[in-house]
Amino acid sequence: MSGTKRITRREFTVGVLSGAVGLRAAAVAAPAGKKVSPYRGVSCQTYVWSQVLGEQKKNLGDCLDQVFAEIRAAGCRGVETMAEFLDKPDFSDLLAKQRLRLTGVYSGAALHEREKAKPVLARLADLGPRVKALGCDVLVVNPNPIGREKTDAELATQTAMLNELGRMLHESGVALNVHTHAPEMRSNGREFCSNLDNTDPSLVGLCADVDWIRRGGGDPYELLTRYAARIGSCHLRNSVGGVWSESLGDGDTDYRRIAKIFAGIEKRIYLTVELAYEPKTPRTRPLAEDAALSRKYVRTVFGV
């Protein structure tokens, strides 16, 4: 853009890391008795753009410049996206161009069979230094569903692999946050709880996807209260009458109640807007506008 100084990759990375240090310093320097905000910032997940672009026969990876620009214009200062895009040679330059912080990298992972999990662990552990070099310190991993409930032995293997992955990522200065979809909530959240109850809290945190917890039959208010100390990030989406809403707003999940739960936690977390459309979702506005409205809702409800 004419008249605008281009930020180099090194300048961007140094700036991001300096900002993170500044946030930590501010927390340490907070006056005694003054509560520090539980939020590290607000970001946006790119998933819904993959849906919209797919309808246009376009690939999300080929349109990251447009997507990052729309996220920035919506008022978000961070972005979470899929691990596959780290392989794009211009990925960090695209972040720098829009002055976006990478707040999380998402990946699925088959972790319930030990031998098959070994190369998966190696791949994910390799992401640690690459993520850290981009100024990000969060890897979000969802253990793959397999079409049925996992056996006790499979869950034991999975939690062992999560612990090992958490240890390897920790060595790179990156936190592991385990994510969930509806299948993990079967049988009163059996797999969801196993992933947390049987892992080391210092190695495995939680990316709390409030809507998937509720859709899977769980009580998000009870579970987020129970595992509050494990939450490292949170995906925000809502539905109205069981149908995903066009933008984040009031609906089936009471996010004001969620905000009260978060207000009582000590660790700082990322709030990540993750919109998604389904066939019955009303779609009356451009996605960029939905993203902006969602960001305003987060500010109204969470005060950040």
Q: How would you describe this structure to a colleague?
A:
With 304 residues, the chain is α/β, with parallel strands linked by helices. It has a single domain (42-302), classed as Alpha-Beta Barrel (TIM Barrel). It contains 11 helices and 10 strands. The strands form 2 sheets. An 8-stranded parallel beta barrel has the order 1-2-3-4-5-6-7-10, surrounded by 4 helices. Strands 8-9 form a two-stranded antiparallel ribbon. Helix 3 (64-73) runs parallel beside helix 4 and helix 5 runs parallel beside helix 6 (152-171). The longest helix has 21 residues, at 9-29. The protein is globular. The two termini are 30 Å apart. Residues 1-30 have low confidence and may be disordered.
Strand content: 15-25%
CATH class: Alpha Beta
Within CATH, the superfamily carries the name Divalent-metal-dependent TIM barrel enzymes
From the coordinates shown, what is the CATH architecture?
A: Alpha-Beta Barrel
Rg calculated over all Cα atoms: 19 Å
Helical content band? 40-55%
Instruction: Give the termini distance in whole angstroms.
Output: 30 Å
Poorly predicted parts: 1-30
| Global morphology | globular
Structural class: alpha/beta
Average pLDDT for all residues: 91
The main sheet comes to: 8 strands, parallel, barrel
The total count of helices amounts to: 11
Strand order of the largest sheet: 1-2-3-4-5-6-7-10
